[in-house]
């Protein structure tokens, strides 16, 4: 389950329905899909996409998404630091950012039009959709592990448009939830 916080306002929400309604008031879609359909570490991208084919098809139908893929980030992923560097600065996209976390965790920050900066720590089983044009950024937690399904309306839309506001540096990610990361034998 996600953990939603606005530290400046003393807000911390972990209950699913409350988090869903709170995020909806900012235009953010939050839902949970069934966990444990696949082993998030060993399953192939195709196995993951088939395990969630029903939900993916529904999102595609409702949101106009045309493709889905699986992103896999580990501490030893080549170029991980430069990828994280791209994600961690405030930016917008011309299409929605839709992510379903299969394994690991990470933190989205959303900078609302009203000025609030909302921190959303996503975990396995969490789906989040940040509407196009919304200012946001993303960090991994210390273990640097996430595997997530991404949906795209048009891949070119995912290009980040940086705001260069510097606000991201004022909201460092604080990961609060439990985390269990088994490094597989083959990667040791
Ligand atoms: Fe983004």
Account of the protein in words:
The protein is α+β, with helices and mostly antiparallel strands. It has four helices and twelve strands, in the order ββαβααβαββββββββ. It has helices at residues 16-24, 45-51, 53-63, 80-87; strands at 3-6, 11-13, 29-32, 67-73, 91-92, 97-104, 106-111, 117-122, 126-130, 135-140, 146-152, 161-162. A hairpin with a 5-residue loop joins strand 7 and strand 8. The longest helix has 11 residues, at 53-63. It is globular and about 40 Å long. The two termini are 29 Å apart.
| Topology as a string of helices (H) and strands (E) | EEHEHHEHEEEEEEEE
CATH topology: Jelly Rolls
Distance between the termini: 29 Å
Bound molecules: fe (ii) ion
The first-level CATH class is given as Mainly Beta
Q: How many domain regions?
A: 1
Shape: globular
Alpha-beta classification: alpha+beta
SSE arrangement:
Layout lengths: L2 E4 L4 E3 L2 H9 L4 E4 L12 H7 L1 H11 L3 E7 L6 H8 L3 E2 L4 E8 L1 E6 L5 E6 L3 E5 L4 E6 L5 E7 L8 E2 L26
Antiparallel strand pairs: 1-2, 1-8, 3-9, 4-11, 5-12, 6-9, 6-11, 7-8, 7-10
Bound molecules: fe (ii) ion.
Fe (ii) ion (FE2) binds next to loops.
């Amino acid at each position: 389950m996600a953990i939603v916080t606005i530290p400046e306002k003393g807000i911390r929400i972990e209950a699913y329905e409350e988090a869903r309604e709170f995020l909806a008031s900012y235009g953010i879609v939050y839902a949970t899909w069934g966990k444990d359909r696949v082993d998030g570490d060993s399953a192939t991208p195709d196995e993951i996409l088939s395990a969630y084919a029903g939900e993916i098809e529904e999102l595609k139908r409702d949101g106009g998404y045309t493709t889905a893929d699986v992103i896999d980030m580990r501490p030893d992923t080549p170029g991980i630091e430069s990828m994280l560097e791209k994600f961690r600065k405030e930016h917008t996209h011309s299409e929605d950012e839709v992510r379903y976390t299969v394994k690991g965790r990470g933190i989205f920050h959303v900078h609302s039009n009203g000025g609030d900066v909302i921190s959303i720590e996503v975990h396995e089983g969490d789906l989040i959709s940040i509407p196009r044009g919304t200012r946001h950024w993303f960090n991994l937690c210390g273990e640097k592990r996430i595997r997530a399904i991404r949906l795209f309306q048009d891949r070119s839309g995912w290009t980040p448009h940086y705001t260069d506001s510097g606000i991201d540096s004022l909201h460092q990610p604080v990961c609060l939830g439990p985390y269990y990361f088994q490094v597989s034998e083959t990667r040791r």
